[in-house]
Amino acid sequence: MKIITDPRRWKETMYEVRESGASIGFVPTMGALHQGHLSLIRMAKEQSGAVAVSIFVNPTQFNDPKDLRAYPSTLETDQEALRSLGVEYLFLPSYEALYPDGYTYSIEEHEISRRFCGASRPGHFTGVLTVVMKLLLLTGADRAYFGEKDWQQYRLIEGMCEAFFLDTKIIPAPLIREASGLALSSRNMLLSEEDRALAPSFHAILSSGKPVEQIISDLEQAGFIVDYVQQWEDRLLGAVMLSHVRLIDNVRIRT
Ligand code: PAF
After folding, report:
1. Which of 77, 150, 196, 247 lies 20 to 30 Å (CA to CA) from residue 111?
2. Whole-angstrom Cα distance, residue 58 to residue 26?
3. Which element (helix H / strand E) includes 3?
4. CA neighbor of 43 nearest in space, from 141, 129, 182
5. CATH numbers and ranges of domains, the chain
6. Pocket residues for ligand 1 (CB within 6 Å)?
7. 37: annotated active-site residue
């Protein structure tokens, strides 16, 4: 696996890969890889000639500096997992390299990004869209893969690519759950033992089919601090806090 830290070098390398005739499947991540990420990489592997992954904990998408400091990092094991899946290219940029402008330029969406997670995390999606735009422009991938766990993020990225006529096709990948129903997330490793035991009830209650008001009340009763539970299109989206750890999930609404 070729590891590249310099954005210009990455851009040149990706150009060479495309010139060689191989299609590129790209999986952007913030590391602390779990089976959800690995399923995206497996999808990319099946559908593309070469697989490129980035690991970059993007500070501009964290509205809370404590959340950024606490974000898990498991770079060594991440690299082992990527090697064992046969990933060819890994991009590991620094903040200075990826933001030569010091984040004076950004990509902003003015509607959906302000709802749901965006309402309680101001600036979060501007940070996400900005870094994803940079990564997509640098990689020039044929396909880029995003997990459906963060449904709002996936839809915003898909919308951004349409709005700016980017050539990369955005592929959503199914949310992966533990046997308990808990959606896999890098943040799960930050949960205390007690909160870990409670966390699976989030999905159980969210998918109960009850009215939204009842779901919110059941979640609060179970011990979650509810940020929101709201229907959007054919999904019921939710975000809750367990101590200082934020969990998000979504389920398709049965019609
Ligand atoms: O979903 C994530 O891990 C991040 O938001 C992403 C898409 C890699 C951008 O930093």
Report:
1. 247
2. 17
3. strand 2-4
4. 141
5. 2-173 (3.40.50.620), 186-248 (3.30.1300.10)
6. 28-30, 58, 61, 128, 131-132, 150, 153
7. yes
